[in-house]
Design brief:
heterodimer; A: about 700 residues; alpha/beta; six-stranded mixed β-sheet; 31 helices; 11 strands; about 5% strand; B: about 80 residues; alpha+beta; SH3 type barrels; six-stranded antiparallel β-sheet; 2 helices; globular; binds guanosine-5'-triphosphate; binds magnesium ion
């Protein structure tokens, strides 16, 4: 045995049993956690120092109840265990079980025992098990399964040291054999086992059961298995049901012996009592919509003060540096390109943080599963499933993880429709655009002295996105055909007090990734934009001053006005100006000019770029002392009317456009991955752009 | 004896014993989730619009659609 090979340890278990919590404790990473079955949808690795000289590679997996997968996230796990030569095939498995509910954690355990995988059983949530009054005979459990058993608490980290100690010792596979292969298929199983050189009969049996999922085998090999199964009349379904019943027989028998005292049914009473209110006929929906409403109000009302502070700080910084630096293109780049660019990112931290805090609390408390429950029937009318609600809600944060989260939807049609419509949900990247424009065109007054108008408009935009999503889903429902049956069999987790540290990590992680990921793009685009807007083809730029001076002869302009004119002339003849001008005829009916056209182009990479683009363009095109972003937009003049550029009609038209348009390359890439091809992302791009254009057109024409 | 009843016909608070399944495809999934012939199932409550429903089986709570619940036959 190679000594320098790192021990590979996989964390397996049913959904919501605490695998990712344990993963975080072992590796020190911040994998996302939540009280909802199906938070983790992909494998992830990290390293753990078991003791001062041994390092192990830990693999966190999506949750599964059994080795027979039905959803994409479950297939990922089944493949890890099926492919012995795969790079994720573990040397050892830690089966993370929910101690408050051992029975449905054990099915997978017995299957893995039959695969002869070295395994440790980690009984998680021991704090809750103790609360419920349950007591387990650990020794008997360990002896009956022939496996080491450790008690842990994934939240506090209790017992993790014991687990590490057990993992350091050599672990042998259990000698138990729980499912005995039916005599009539033994010869067939042996043939497969020998042909593929497998180590256990159960593995050969799995090859027969789920040949389609053995993507690591060649097509020929799979055809061979199918052929063998056919000649021997092997029908997967016939055996699968019997296998499950037999395993549960074993499990029930075992639990009868090891559970010394069953849990007191009273302990869930609190959870039931909350359910009675939260899933109530009237209160249920009322509370759900109040929660959403509260989120929008808090995003707007609470974030305003820190945002104004950040905005004015950056304006001051820009001003001070402007005076401090000598004149020159390089320093201009810094004061007019880079600093407004950074300001355009940082200003949104308060809102992003509040948004993620809200979503994370919804998930950690267990409420998200109730939202699925409440919304399923309504969503089905629109061709979605209750499970689509989770991607749609997390789509309010970002469409990328939201589209990944659709992996837990079993039905292909439900999933494709969900993926298709999720980008309509207003993500956090739209928030910057919304914030600036709403603040610009909507008065700061309060309705009944309480509801902030700006908050109401913001909520209206989110609703617009939501309705666009479900109406599009409805149309797709009529178009796409499938025979596959859709179902919703989902565990309802008990309510839990959120672990505030988890909520905190989520906020920090997400805000950090917003600042760095979005920041990189925004900064790069700000710089490119600054170059494109400062230089132009031919002699036009150099001759700018001459031309303007000539034009202005006899007009009696002040020095300042003259300078402004030169700056505006330069911008118009720069590369960016030429691009914007080319676009102008197409966007004029929506009420936009060529400067906004430039912002639309840069927004295609990522829509949050709008704000910094506009800020850069306006600062280049004028010599005003106005430095806050909002102030710059406010003072922009429409030369055709002489009034402000951002009239309510233009503002609303832009808001509607940004709500509905597909302006995110990363989303398109994820959709391509999720649907395995270019068909859906391209359809999505065309469809959303057309819808956005038409809607913005209607809005502008009817308001102006 | 009346006609066969299914989980979908139960009333909130009622407990019954599972006897059989009507849909072969779905039954493998239901078995895995702990709906075993001979075990007790308790009907907890329905969603506000009457579908899906929440039941307890094998010691935990699950949500099911009426469509799925009606494939689980109970003894009566
Ligand atoms: N009280 C208590 N809660 C725990 C414990 N371990 C995990 N949790 C909570 O259980 C929930 C599920 O934890 P996760 O780590 O996300 O579970 P998972 O197995 O990764 O779930 P999926 O990724 O959905 O399969 C979270 O709300 C955790 O905070 C524990 O030992 N005690
Ligand atoms: Mg997880």
């Amino acid at each position: 045995m190679a000594i320098d090979k790192k021990l590979k340890i996989a964390l397996a278990g049913k959904p919501n049993s605490g695998k990712s919590s344990l993963f975080n404790k072992l590796t020190g990473l911040n994998q996302k956690i939540g009280n909802f079955p199906g938070i983790t949808v992909d494998k992830r690795t990290g390293t753990c120092q078991l003791n001062y000289q041994t390092v192990a590679e830990i693999i966190d997996l999506p949750g599964i109840y059994s080795l027979y997968p039905r959803t994409l996230d479950e297939k990922i796990v089944a493949e890890v265990f099926a492919d012995q030569n795969g790079s994720f095939y573990p040397d050892c498995v830690v089966l993370v079980a929910d101690a408050t509910n051992l029975k449905n954690c054990m099915l997978l355990l017995t299957q893995l025992i039959d695969l002869k995988l070295p395994m440790v059983l980690a009984l998680n949530m021991m704090d809750l098990a103790a609360q419920s009054g349950q007591s387990i005979d650990i020794q008997e459990l360990s002896a009956s399964l022939d496996l080491p058993v450790v008690m842990i608490n994934g939240r506090t980290g209790q017992g993790i040291d014991d687990l590490k100690a057990v993992l350091l010792k050599p672990i042998l596979p259990s000698k138990k054999l729980i499912y005995k292969i039916d005599a009539e298929i033994k010869p067939l199983v042996s043939t497969i086992k020998n042909k593929f050189n497998l180590s256990t009969e159960y593995e050969a049996y799995q090859y027969l059961q789920q040949t389609d999922n053995l993507v690591f085998l060649s097509a020929q090999d799979r055809a061979y298995i199918f052929e063998q199964a056919e000649t021997e009349k092997f029908f997967p379904h016939k055996y699968q049901g019997a296998e499950t019943v037999m395993r549960y027989g074993f499990i029930q028998d075992l639990l009868n012996r090891v559970i010394l005292k069953t849990s007191d049914p009273e302990w869930k009473k609190f959870s039931y009592r909350i359910d009675r209110v939260l899933t109530h006929k009237v209160w249920g929906y009322l509370i759900f919509f109040s929660v959403l409403f509260l989120i929008f109000q808090s995003i707007f009302a609470w974030a305003q003060i820190p945002m104004d502070f950040i905005d004015s700080t950056f304006a001051k910084l820009s001003n001070t540096l402007d005076e401090f630096f000598p004149k020159g293109p390089f320093f201009d780049l810094i004061t007019q390109g880079v600093i407004p660019g950074i300001g355009g990112i940082l200003i949104f931290i308060p809102q992003i943080a509040i948004l993620f805090a809200c979503i994370s609390i919804l998930e950690e408390s267990g409420y998200m599963a109730r939202v699925v429950f409440l919304m399923d029937k309504i969503m089905r009318k629109f061709g979605l499933s209750g499970k689509s609600v989770v991607p749609l809600i997390s789509g309010m944060a970002c469409a990328i993880p939201a589209i990944m989260a659709t992996r837990t939807i079993e039905n292909w049609k439900d999933r494709v429709i969900t993926i298709f419509v999720t980008p309509f949900m207003s993500c956090s990247a739209r928030l910057p655009v919304f914030t600036i424009l709403v603040a610009l065109i909507i008065p700061e007054d309060k309705l009944f002295g309480f509801f902030n108008y700006q908050g109401l408009v913001l909520m209206g935009l989110y609703l617009l996105g939501f309705f666009a999503a479900i109406l599009s889903a409805f149309v797709l429902k009529l178009i796409i055909k499938t025979k596959e049956r859709s179902y919703l069999i989902m565990e309802m987790p008990t309510y839990r007090k959120p672990k505030w540290a988890n909520v905190g990590y989520t906020i920090v992680e997400k805000t950090k990734s917003f600042v760095f990921e979005a920041g990189k793009i925004i900064l790069a685009i700000s710089v490119i934009l600054w170059v494109l807007a400062s230089y132009g083809p031919g002699d036009k730029m150099k001759g700018a001053e001459e031309v303007v001076h000539k034009e202005s002869i006899g007009k009696n302009l002040t020095e300042n006005e003259l300078e402004s004119k030169v700056a505006a002339y330069k911008l118009e003849h720069s590369y960016a100006g030429i691009i914007g001008k080319a676009l102008e005829p197409a966007i004029k009916p929506l009420g936009y000019d060529w400067k906004i056209g430039i912002a639309l182009v840069t927004s295609f990479a990522a829509r949050e770029v709008f704000v910094s683009t506009i800020a850069t363009i306006y600062s280049l095109g004028s010599t005003d002392d106005e430095q806050t972003i909002k102030g710059r937009l406010k003072s922009e003049i429409n030369p055709e009317t002489g009034g402000p550029r951002y009239t309510p009609a233009v503002g609303l038209s832009l808001l509607v456009f940004y709500t509905l348009a597909m302006q995110c390359m990363s989303t398109l890439a994820v959709v391509k991955r999720g649907t395995k091809g270019w068909k859906w992302p391209l359809l999505q791009l065309v469809y959303m752009t057309v819808v956005a254009y038409l809607a913005a057109f209607v809005v502008f024409q009817s308001f102006s | 004896m009346g006609p066969k009843r299914s989980v979908a016909d139960m009333k909130p608070g009622e407990t019954a014993v599972i006897s059989d399944f009507l849909d072969d495809n779905l039954s493998t999934k239901l078995l895995e989730m702990g709906f075993l012939p001979g075990t007790a199932v308790r009907f907890n409550f329905t969603a506000p619009l009457g579908d899906p429903v929440c039941v307890s089986v094998s010691g935990y709570d699950l949500s099911l659609r009426i469509d799925e619940a009606s494939t689980i036959v109970i003894l009566n």
